[in-house]
Amino acid sequence: MTRHIASFTVIALLFGLSVACDKPGVTEQQQESKANEQAAKTRGEAEQQTQSAQAKAERDIAQARADFDKSREDYLHSRRVDLDDLDKTIADLEAKAKIDKGKAKTELDSRLPAIRAQRDTFARHMQALGTATVDTWDTAKANLDKEWEALKSAVHSAS
User: Fold this and answer.
1) CA 153 – CA 145 distance, rounded (Å)
2) CB 3.0 to 4.6 Å from 97: which of 35, 45, 69, 108, for a disulfide?
3) CA dist., res. 110 & res. 38, Å (int)
4) pTM for the full model?
């Protein structure tokens, strides 16, 4: 019988210890829940910061594109005004070629077709510059500036 009492005591003691072990498990579970909540909060804050940074980057990109478009339009407008002025000079040269006689007429008659062709090429390239991208802008603009100087020089030397 003492054997049964001893066994029963051991069983009761083990049961008591197992019940006592549940309390630390509850505490650990609460700590785990807190850690999960903190992790979720941190992820949410990180997500918000990422979205904020993305929105700022998109605004900056849109502003840069708008600035580029404005710069391109300003440049093209300036070149159109220059071309209009040069067209007047070319028209004056054509009128002069009709009036002049001799060597001056022959000289103008020989230069005007090349000037007109050069002017038309410049106008086509200027129009194409209107669709140039940021990547090709600098090169295309530099080429157009060279063409402009060559055209302007050709017209002025014919004057």
Assistant:
1) 12
2) 108
3) 85
4) 0.66
